[in-house]
């Protein structure tokens, strides 16, 4: 296997793994030799993903996790330590979007939900992953932000605020823990055809959204996951503090 894509023996924890990026990344890492602990608030969904991965011969454990709950986030890392003795990779992927609203219509309850899941969930995950990685002289963490975290995002102000915060956490973590060989990066996808987007926007809306990208289409989930693999690669040892746009050329305009 190409060393760039060889995750043999690496232990990865992934939140939001019942579908979308989290599910596809878990499948790809398992195929490349990783051992997995995956979680989602959707217990039945994440158990099914784990069973499918296990059927291929990979080592995987699943648990229900509400990332807005610090105890749940700790339990996920604790399970990885109990079963595998370490955590080499942490992927803080779980997140939620919200319906389109003008900024002046965003209420406190909506902001609270966005920050509880999209910001606190990332911070809780990073905190417990880093504590373990400090004991083993290194690791790689990947957070899922958004193009909405790199610039303004009309009609999704609360989501944009939260995803900007994820970038702040990512960069700060990279500065604090680089000397400990802990790499912390983030991806910033443009609209991607995950369930989150298809639930929010019908085909007509998706077509309009695609006009914002020079490539004139939305991303396929597998295209984003390919970049996630590169960023997490054990051979990618000097990249940290980066928030990479996967955007079909949007940021080049």
TrEMBL record:
Q: Which UniProt keywords apply?
A: Oxidoreductase
Q: Which family does it belong to?
A: Belongs to the short-chain dehydrogenases/reductases (SDR) family.
Cross-referenced Pfam families, in alphabetical order?
A: adh_short_C2
Q: Give the source species.
A: Colwellia hornerae
Does Methyltransferase count among this protein's keywords?
A: no
Classification via NCBIfam families: PRK07231.1
Q: Does the keyword Oxidoreductase apply?
A: yes
CDD domains noted in UniProt: SDR_c (cd05233)
The protein's name: SDR family oxidoreductase
Q: Recall the GO molecular function terms of this protein's record.
A: oxidoreductase activity
């Amino acid at each position: 296997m190409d060393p760039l894509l060889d995750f043999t023996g690496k232990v990865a924890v992934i939140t939001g793994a019942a579908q979308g990026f989290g599910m596809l990344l878990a499948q790809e890492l398992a195929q490349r030799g990783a051992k997995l602990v995956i979680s989602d608030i959707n217990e039945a969904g994440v158990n099914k993903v784990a069973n499918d991965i296990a059927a291929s011969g990979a080592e995987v454990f699943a648990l229900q996790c509400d990332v807005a709950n610090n105890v749940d986030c700790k339990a996920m890392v604790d399970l990885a330590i109990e079963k595998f003795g370490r955590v080499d990779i942490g992927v803080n992927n779980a997140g939620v979007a919200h319906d389109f609203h003008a900024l002046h219509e965003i209420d406190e309850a909506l902001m609270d939900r966005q920050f509880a899941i999209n910001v606190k969930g990332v911070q809780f995950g990073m905190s417990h992953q880093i504590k373990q990685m400090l004991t083993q002289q290194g690791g790689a963490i990947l957070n899922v932000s958004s193009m909405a975290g790199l610039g303004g995002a009309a009609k999704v102000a609360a989501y944009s605020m939260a995803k900007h915060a994820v970038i702040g956490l990512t960069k700060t973590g990279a500065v604090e823990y680089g000397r400990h060989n802990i790499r912390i990066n983030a991806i910033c996808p443009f609209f991607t055809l995950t369930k989150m987007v298809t639930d929010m926007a019908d085909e007509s809306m998706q077509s309009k959204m695609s006009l914002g990208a020079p490539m004139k289409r939305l991303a396929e989930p597998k295209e984003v996951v390919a970049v996630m693999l590169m960023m997490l690669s054990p051979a990618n040892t000097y990249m940290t503090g980066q928030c990479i746009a996967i955007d079909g050329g949007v940021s080049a305009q």
